Amino acid sequence: MNKKLYVPHPGHFDGLQEMLESSKDIYSIYMAGSPDYIGTGRVNLGHAGLEEVARHTEYCHNNGVKIEMVLNSSCMGGQQLTPEGYNLIHWYISNLEDIGVDTVVVADPYIIEMIANEFNIPVVVSVLAFVDCSQKAEFFEQLGASSIVIDSNVNRHFDVLEAIRDAVDCELKLLVNEGCLYRCPFRYAHFNFFSHVNGPPPRPNVQDDYYYHKCLTMRINDPSQILKSPFIRPEDLEEYAHITDVFKIGGRSHFINWILNCVDAYAAESYDGNLMDLMDCPKDLVDLFNIPNKALDGAIEQWKKHSTVCHTCGYCQRRISEIAQVYDHKGTTDEKLVPWNTITKKGIET
């Protein structure tokens, strides 16, 4: 299928050059702006000032690639509603528009409507606006959204996706490789936390990330949660052709070779390797698990039928027991892959 791939910026100009020289399958690069104006919902490898944004924008456009600015803070502490906050945000968006940025991604409804009414730059509704039904999609389209990134939690709920497609005329975009827990109970609190850590000062001096470690531990103890994550395999993009041809690859905190590997896989709509290599998830999980992607051929049919009844379905639990492997003695000469289902509370059976 013909598709538009939105790809994360690697965080520095040399990396951007390498990516665009290495791949012709990138439709748009998305990058974060300065956290001094509007925060984002992710940790980034780098934050660009306006001069850098202009440089990167010019380079992308010279190579036939669009550029998208991510300003998707899910919480700004109400500053956006103060005169000072409005003036600062308005000034920043004006500069991005003058630079020629193609689109901006926003989560806050107030800022979405402000940009749509006061600027000519198209505004995209972030996945952090949690658009998971047709009513929400209609609401944001009425505010002036030109595009909506649908809540990834409904990536396998085809009845919901089809209802959203029928309800709005604007572009729809799907995030394909996010490795978060399905219906994650930490999601709202975690992204609010990120928004403050990666937003305007004062920034919290946090020593640890409770949500990260809790989520990680849950998946190590129960790797079926990895399969329940609402990722879309490269091989399954065709299943979504009637919904959209626009797909976003997550991974702003990853490095160039990882990003390019994901681009190649989703461009080819095929990946013969470890599914974990494509997942935007903690490195601890990637280093532990090997889940052969091709072993999941056909799984989409099960997910389409039983996407919301995990407690009675049991499919992901059965499949992970059959196909998952873990690295034993990793980093030593005795390193080997062993079936995950040989693990007991006492360790790995031999």
Task: Please characterize this protein's 3D structure.
The chain is an alpha/beta fold. It has one domain: Alpha-Beta Barrel (TIM Barrel), CATH 3.20.20. Helices cover 39% and strands 14% of the residues. It is built from 14 helices and 13 strands. The protein has helices at 13-22, 50-62, 83-99, 109-118, 134-143, 158-167, 187-197, 210-221, 224-228, 256-268, 283-288, 299-305, 310-313, 315-323; strands at 4-8, 28-32, 66-71, 103-106, 123-125, 147-149, 171-175, 246-248, 289-290, 325-328, 336-339, 343-344, 347-348. The strands form three sheets. An eight-stranded parallel barrel has the order 1-2-3-4-5-6-7-8, surrounded by four helices. Strand 4 (103-106), helix 4 and strand 5 (123-125) form a beta-alpha-beta unit. Helix 1 packs parallel to helix 2 (50-62) and helix 5 packs parallel to helix 6 (158-167). The longest helix is centred in the N-terminal third of the chain and has 17 residues, at 83-99.
CATH superfamily: Aldolase class I
Helix content: 25-40%
Spatial separation of the terminal alpha carbons: 46 Å
Q: Domains counted in the coordinates: how many?
A: 1
Numbering strands along the chain, what is their spatial order in the largest sheet?
1-2-3-4-5-6-7-8
Strand-residue proportion: 5-15%
Low-confidence stretches: none
Q: Over the alpha carbons, how many angstroms does the gyration radius reach?
A: 20 Å
Number of strands: 13
Mean pLDDT: 91
Supply the helix-strand structural class.
alpha/beta
Shape: globular
Largest sheet: 8 strands, parallel, barrel
How many helices? 14
What CATH first level would be assigned?
Answer: Alpha Beta
SSE order in H/E notation?
EHEHEHEHEHEHEHHHEHHEHHHEEEE
In the CATH classification, which architecture applies? Alpha-Beta Barrel
Q: CATH topology, anyone?
A: TIM Barrel
